[in-house]
Amino acid sequence: SWDSFAQGMRGERSDGEYSLQFACRHVGCSWPRHPIPVGSYEFPFMVFEYNPLTRQYGFADQGVWTLTVTNKPPEVTVSPSKVKVRPGDVVTATVTATDPDKDTITLTKISGPGSFPTVTGEESVSSTYTWTVPKYWSSPWTLVGFRADDGWGGSGLAYLLIHIVQPPRAYGAHAWVNRGGTATTSLYIDDPDSFSHTFAFSPPEGITVRVVGKEDVPDYYGDYYGHLYQVEVSVDPRLCPGTYPVPFTVTDPDCDLRGVH
């Protein structure tokens, strides 16, 4: 009967420093939740039958019970996960790690600039990331990584993406134009985080300037940080010969920063 099966069911398995036991009485079974490494465990057991006449238990059967232990990794979130700042700004973000198994977790920063205090706690921990963007920072995109470990082989990752908007840098150009004629020159714009710009020219009377084309120029590493704009310059035939400066403003739409050249 099930009652005699349950009363006589016993099992044990040892694996190095870890030992698991179970004992079934009636219909309930239990075993310790920790410490149990992830894996599968086999529990050999024997079943004894009770003889009411002799009031003794006798061997009836044997088998193997398999227990599979799984581990859920921690979940890490960053709030906000993406920010847009300018050089000199202070970046702050809250990083939170939660473990579904309620394990003790350690949350650390694994990559990127800035400061982040490492924290350890049970089930859920959080810490604050801070970074003051240097005035001169070469890359427009910076990725900061965070990791939570639960001590049982499970880990979770999350990242903060920082977009550092930078003003466009424009370089002057020259154009030789006959009176009453039109010529084309090029304006080079260095801008690592924008691919379109707006120009406002302020030429003297008798000169008109307009952008007629654009070409992206890759650098040594193949990144398209340079932008070459074709500019058409027209001169009124009544304009006296000479050299005329043409101030202009270039606007970066990402951050609306301007530079007059």
Describe the model.
By secondary structure, the chain is mostly beta strands. It has one helix and 19 strands. The chain has one helix at 2-7; strands at 10-15, 18-23, 39-51, 56-69, 75-79, 82-85, 90-98, 104-111, 119-122, 124-132, 141-149, 155-164, 169-171, 182-190, 198-201, 207-217, 226-235, 248-252, 257-260. The strands form five sheets. Strands 6-12-11-8-9 form a five-stranded mixed β-sheet, with no helix packed on it. Strands 2-1-3-4 form a four-stranded antiparallel β-sheet. Strands 13-14-17-16 form a four-stranded antiparallel β-sheet, with no helix packed on it. A hairpin with a 7-residue loop joins strand 8 and strand 9. It starts with a helix and ends with a strand. Residues 1-30 have low confidence and may be disordered.
Keywords:
261 residues; mainly beta; 5-stranded mixed sheet; 19 strands; 2% helix; disordered N terminus
